[in-house]
Automatic annotation (TrEMBL):
<dbReference type="InterPro" id="IPR011250">
    <property type="entry name" value="OMP/PagP_B-barrel"/>
</dbReference>
<dbReference type="Pfam" id="PF03922">
    <property type="entry name" value="OmpW"/>
</dbReference>
<protein>
    <submittedName>
        <fullName>Outer membrane protein</fullName>
    </submittedName>
</protein>
<keyword id="KW-0732">Signal</keyword>
<comment type="similarity">
    <text>Belongs to the OmpW/AlkL family.</text>
</comment>
<dbReference type="InterPro" id="IPR005618">
    <property type="entry name" value="OMPW"/>
</dbReference>
<feature type="signal peptide">
    <location>
        <begin position="1"/>
        <end position="27"/>
    </location>
</feature>
Length: 267
């Protein structure tokens, strides 16, 4: 009987211990089972954001304005411009000599349209310097002389002009400016007209210039430009040789007005 009672007591003690231990074990294992689920739910949005591709709106193409595009022009900008250029000689004041004697008449030079290439750099937000390169062909004639109207010939003019400009509205889409500069003009491929003029020489010339214009930002780094320059220069020309019987000398205040419109790109 004592042995049976001891065995029953041991069984009863085991049942009680098992009943107490079961909830504790369940409480300990529950967080272990649920923790990975909770962690995955927190990390999932972060992983999704890291894996998501960049929005196409962040891409900035050649002909596109994006969040990183600078508005307007300012310090450090370098511009290349291609323009259609119109050169209109004014021929304000002409003087003619025939064999050393002054004669009545005037010089007339034709207008011309050609492409122009311009390079411009901004030292500050307001101040830039630019250099234009273009070459135009012009016909030259002497009008109203005692020998009638004389077709003198033709020449190509190469007038590189450097200009210092002040820009009024830096970092704005519309930016007007004014400038002052200087021109040095060479004449090449000079061709006499023949007949009375068998030989033709045109001297190097130059002078000051002033200009006005504006830049307008179209899209991205592309701009539209309009520019007008007034150059002040005299042309000196000689037809034939001394002692030829028809040595003609001419001075002409060429003073061309130069108007251009074109597209430019900022680097």
């Amino acid at each position: 009987m004592k042995t049976s009672f001891k065995l029953s007591s041991a069984l009863l003690t085991g049942f009680v211990a098992a009943a107490v231990a079961a909830p504790a074990a369940q409480a300990q294992t529950t967080p272990v089972v649920n923790t990975p689920v909770t962690t995955n739910m927190v990390l999932a949005p972060q992983a999704q954001a890291m894996a998501a591709p960049h929005s196409s709106s962040d891409d900035c193409g050649l002909f596109k304005t994006c969040s990183t595009t600078k508005i307007g022009l300012g310090k450090g900008d370098f511009i290349v411009r291609l323009s259609a250029l119109g050169v209109i000689p004014q021929d304000r004041d002409s003087k003619l000599w025939l064999n050393g004697a002054a004669i009545p008449g005037r010089v007339k030079t034709t207008s011309q349209v050609m492409p122009e290439l311009t390079f411009e750099y901004f030292f500050t937000d307001n101040i830039s310097i630019d250099l234009i390169a273009a070459s135009t062909r012009h016909e030259v004639a002497a009008k109203g002389t005692p020998l009638g109207n004389i077709d003198v010939g033709s020449a190509w003019a190469l007038p590189p002009t450097i200009t210092l400009a002040w820009h009024f509205r830096p970092h704005k889409r519309f930016n007007p400016y004014v400038g002052v500069g200087a021109t040095l003009a060479w004449f090449h491929n000079v061709s006499p007209a023949g007949g009375l003029v068998q030989k033709l020489n045109v001297g190097v010339t130059g002078g000051p210039s002033v200009n006005v214009g504006f830049d307008y930002q179209l899209v991205g780094n592309w701009f539209f430009n309009v520019d007008a320059k007034q150059m002040f220069m005299r042309m000196h020309a000689w037809a034939n040789d001394r002692g030829s019987g028809a040595f003609i000398k001419a001075h002409d205040s060429l003073d061309p007005t130069v108007v251009g419109a074109g597209i430019e790109y900022r680097f």
